[in-house]
User: Fold this.
Amino acid sequence: MNLVYEDESYQIMGACFEVYKEKGCGFLESVYQECLEIELGLRGATFKAQPSLALMYKGVALKHAYMPDFICFDKIILEIKAVSDLTDEHRAQIFNYLKATEFKLGLLVNFNHFPQVEYERIVL
Assistant:
């Protein structure tokens, strides 16, 4: 079975694992956000951090936008958390981001899990 965007997702997850190795768990999400910006840059990954993306409703642009944590390689949503456990609400959030962008792959990563980073691949 082939994974959607296998090489790109391995590069992203490698960056996440490196940040977890260096910082461990217990920090705020904003700390991991900043560390990932540095690590993805060091790895030469193409990404946008916290881009503001428009939402539509029946062809009309809404006043409210949404900001995923990262868009990587112009096709993968990376949403990070610093919570005790990932929940269905977190999964729904990334699923909605995928529907809104029509991207195929989302990576949901939790840095506040011990003894290792917790992550899920969500494919639309």
User: Anything to note?
Assistant: Residues 6-123 form a domain with the Trna Endonuclease; Chain: A, domain 1 fold (CATH 3.40.1350). The chain is about 35% helix and 30% strand. The chain has one domain: 6-123. The beta strands are 47-49, 53-57, 60-66, 70-72, 76-81, 105-110, 118-123.
